[in-house]
Structure formats: C-alpha cells, structure tokens
Design a protein that fits this description.
mainly alpha; 71% helix
Length: 260
C-alpha cells in the first residue's frame, strides 16, 4: 500500500521536481567556472568547495520548493479529506512525508555530487600552485584533509551523503509546516529563514561551528574548531524544533490538518 501511495505522490510532483533537479545540476556545474581562475588551489576539489558558498545558503529552498507545496494545496482544495475515504490517514501522511523528505535528500545529494564530478572531470587549465607558494599542502589541515587531498571522490561522496541527511531533515521541516501553516509563502521559505537566523545567532554567540550551515559544509571554518560532535548539533537542534512545532500545533492548539 505504501509503495503504491509513494508512486502516486511521485506522479504528482515529478515535473516540478525534475525541473528543479535540472536547474540545480546546471547551477552546480556552471558555478564552478568563475572559480577556476583567480585563486590558488592545492587540489581541484577545492574549486568545488569554493563554489559552494551560495549553495550553502540556498539549499533549504532547493530542498523544499519542489514538493512541500503539495500538502498545502491538498488541504486547501479539500483533496486531503477526499483521499481519507479511500486510504488510512496514517498511511497517506507517511507516504507524503517520505516522498517529500526523500525527494529533498536526493535533490541535495545529486546537485552536490554533480558539481564535484564536473569539477574533477571537466575543469582544465587549473593552476594548482598553492603547494608551491606555501611550501606545503594546506588542504591537509582542513577537516578530514587527508581524504580531501588524496581521495577527493570519496570525500565528496561522503559529504554529499551527509548533506542528503540534512536535506531529509529540512524536507521533514517543510512538510510539518505544510501540515499546519495556512500560508504557502511561510511553508516554502520557513526552512530557509530558520537556517539563516540560526546561523546568524550562532555567529553572534561566537559558536558558528554549531550552525547547520557549518554542518552542511564544514570547510567554511578552520578545521581546529570543527569536530564530529559539533557538526551534529545543528541537525539535532532542527529535529528538536520540528518536534516542538508538531507538539505545539497538534497537542496544544489542537489544529486540524484536514483543511485550511
């Protein structure tokens, strides 16, 4: 039953999802080009790191825009209530949550890893002169620098998978908002606003390594302040926020999700 529901949900979002995926892949590849020249690099993968600056900020939008709108409009048009006559509420919500969150995870993973592949395979005439200028390989001082320098594909794959996990959580956040919020603008921009405010607050407090942006891209800070425990704080905090929002609307306000 869940498998059939997932297929149904995919058919509803596949066109905006594939368009968003295509735009994301195109962006992740083209954004590499301006960073090829004008910088000193130890390895080609550092071009990919440098080009991720914008992606680090907009990834919540990329995660939620393709699919989180659907639940809002099904509630608004009473389509959600109509479907409850044919399938259980629990299974229907679970299928929509899985499609939204897995879809968010996959689009983040593909866009991230596609940029890496393009950078390593198709960029030429890159001057890798940083080692010569500095006298040593500075990339080895970065977070998991050995893998960055010697196994770039493995490094990029693991980082992209981790980003997909964060994308899954962001997708879940967007889905929870779509269950209870009656404003499509808040639903689609809420995760982005949260990430922006959270990152800003941690920066003000002097602990930017706790932010979900740092967790998404540990290379934005020097390696000595990054640890596995610290990069888990941002995702864990977001999960707590999701739980608090769910409990507030469902148990305290007792807000119905059936209609707007």
């Amino acid at each position: 039953m869940i498998k059939n529901l997932l297929k149904l949900e995919w058919n509803k979002i596949k066109y905006p999802y594939l368009i968003s995926l295509g735009v994301g892949i195109l962006y992740s590849c083209l954004i590499i080009l301006p960073f090829i020249s004008g910088y000193s690099y130890n390895h080609k993968i550092e071009i990919w790191q440098q080009s991720n600056q914008v992606f680090d900020l907009i990834f919540p939008l990329l995660a939620v825009l393709p699919s989180c709108w659907l639940m809002y409009y099904e509630r608004k048009n009473n389509f959600f209530i109509y479907n409850l006559t044919r399938v259980s509420k629990k299974k229907y919500i679970i299928s929509k949550w899985l499609m939204t969150s897995i879809g968010s995870a996959m689009i983040i993973f593909v866009v991230s890893f596609a940029g890496l592949i393009f950078c390593l395979k198709f960029t030429n005439n890159v001057k890798l002169n940083a080692i010569k200028l500095n006298g040593y390989d500075t990339s080895l001082k970065e977070f998991y620098g050995y893998y960055l320098a010697n196994k770039p594909y493995l490094y990029g794959l693991i980082l992209s998978v981790w980003r997909a996990v964060i994308g899954f959580i962001i997708g879940t956040f967007g889905f929870v908002l779509s269950l209870y919020i009656n404003n499509i603008f808040i639903i689609l921009t809420g995760p982005f606003v949260y990430v922006f405010i959270e990152s800003y607050m941690f920066a003000i407090l002097g602990v930017p390594y706790y932010s979900i942006v740092t967790s998404f891209d540990p290379s934005i800070l020097i390696a000595k302040v990054i640890s596995l425990k610290r990069i888990l704080v941002g995702p864990f905090l977001l999960i707590m926020v999701i739980c608090i929002i769910s409990i507030y609307f469902s148990c305290i306000k007792k807000k119905s999700i059936h209609y707007i």
